[in-house]
Structure formats: structure tokens, C-alpha cells
Amino acid sequence: MKHNTHVKYNTLESFVSTINDLGIELIIDESLRNVRKQELERLIDNALKNKNENDFKRYTEEYRNLEEFLVG
């Protein structure tokens, strides 16, 4: 009987470990997106200052895609 309980504990422990790993991965992904969004804001500002329409469109499109990912 104890052996079966131990097996269930290992399975639960594995499950909890997987959930923790996923949570950490989500935090890292969100942090990377936030850093990229900050960089894009700076690049968009520079494109506006330099009146570079192509860069402005490219960076705003990437920024919108990041926002959609967060909402969707």
C-alpha cells in the first residue's frame, strides 16, 4: 500500500514541478516582451524624430503584434 502512495507522490511532485517550470517560463517571456516593447518605443520615437516612415511602420507593426499577443 505504501508503494502506491509513493508513486502517486512522485507523479504529483512531477506535475507541480512542471507547473512551476511553466510559470517561470511565462514570467521570462513576459519580461522579454516588455524589454522589447521598451526598445521599440525608443526606436519609434527615433523614427519619428528622423522622419523615417519605413522604420516607423516596421516598429509600430512589431509593437502591435506584441500587444495582440498579450491580449489574445
From TrEMBL:
Pfam families: IDEAL. It comes from the Bacteria. Residues 27-63 form the IDEAL domain. Coiled coil: none annotated. InterPro entries: IDEAL_dom, Virus_scaffolding_prot_C. This is IDEAL domain-containing protein. It comes from Staphylococcus xylosus. The lineage of its organism: Bacteria, Bacillati, Bacillota, Bacilli, Bacillales.
